[in-house]
């Protein structure tokens, strides 16, 4: 009997993800749901988890409401003007 490993061999070198935000108490983080089902409840759980790790951070929620729509200019401007970071989430 022969067992085969179904994982492929990467064609590119793995690059570490090092994008990060230096957040301090008083900063605001946007949680942006993409409109797929469960993206809003998922981000509510993300907020609970992040609140424990990042005391003093404020969270604001955005929801496109329609997964096929682009983020509105108003939402993007509001996030850029008032938030130090944004978490965008997909749900299904």
Classify the helix fraction into a percent range.
25-40%
What's the helix-strand series?
Answer: EHEHE
Q: What is the count of DSSP helices, taking H or I runs of 4+ residues?
A: 2
Shape field: extended
CA distance, first residue to last residue = 38 Å
Low-confidence stretches: none
Description:
The protein has 2 helices and 3 strands; from the N terminus they run βαβαβ. 27% of the residues lie in helices and 18% in strands. The mean pLDDT is 92. A 3-stranded parallel beta sheet has the order 2-1-3, sandwiched between helices. It is an alpha/beta fold and 92 residues long. 12% of the residues are buried. Strand 1, helix 1 and strand 2 form a beta-alpha-beta unit.
Report a brief summary of the structure.
The protein is of the alpha/beta class. The protein is built from 2 helices and 3 strands; from the N terminus they run E-H-E-H-E.
Keywords:
three-stranded parallel beta sheet; 2 helices
Describe the secondary-structure layout.
Elements: E1 28-33, H1 39-53, E2 58-63, H2 73-82, E3 85-89
Parallel strand pairs: 1-2, 1-3
């Amino acid at each position: 009997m022969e067992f085969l490993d179904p994982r492929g061999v990467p064609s590119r070198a793995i690059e570490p993800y090092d994008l990060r935000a230096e957040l301090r108490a008083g900063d605001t983080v946007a949680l942006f749901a993409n409109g797929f089902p469960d993206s809003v409840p998922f981000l509510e759980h993300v907020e609970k988890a992040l609140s424990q790790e990042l005391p003093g951070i404020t969270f604001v929620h955005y929801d496109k409401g329609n997964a096929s729509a682009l983020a509105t200019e108003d939402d993007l401007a509001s996030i850029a003007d008032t938030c130090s970071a944004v978490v965008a989430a997909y749900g299904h």
